[in-house]
# Entry
Amino acid sequence: AAGVIQSPRHLIKEKRETATLKCYPIPRHDTVYWYQQGPGQDPQFLISFYEKMQSDKGSIPDRFSAQQFSDYHSELNMSSLELGDSALYFCASSLVAAYNEQFFGPGTRLTVL
Amino acid sequence: ILNVEQSPQSLHVQEGDSTNFTCSFPSSNFYALHWYRWETAKSPEALFVMTLNGDEKKKGRISATLNTKEGYSYLYIKGSQPEDSATYLCAFSKAGGGADGLTFGKGTHLIIQP
# Structure
């Protein structure tokens, strides 16, 4: 069965640079979520989109923005990167009618030097 | 701020033994409770989503129960095998949260010793 696809899988950036992470949800899923997992921490919710509209917002820094496109894929844009942004970024997708059951992608490991 | 607590933080179990661990969550504003299995270098794997008080779900040797009135869920593993070694995460969905983010607990790290 098709799963959530994330690209790139690994990314290395310098401080103050920008990064764009991409997420392709499971086919026919209408909702996309972004999570950040720092070292030794549980995943922290950043933002979600349902039918291309922002649905819920968590602890997403103002330097980050995201959107969902007409083909339902989503991009997380991160600017003015800081050392503390180094983390594993998960994307998840769901059908909004399915009790918020979210299926996670493999994650993008971002390292900021 | 939603508080999801899991205990114990880590657990060592002999192969063949059964075990269980706990997730506590807010009893108000409840929508769903999720269990995930998370192996190192992999993405969290959905085990169960539970929505009704008294729900019991089972998948092979793993089962879960839900008490929404008192705000807790138990995950049980019967006859533990080495491949059960993983971190087990529970996550809470609040009411009206069809497209809302999950609030995760910090997980129970389970190690099965042969």
About this structure: The mean pLDDT of chain B is 93.
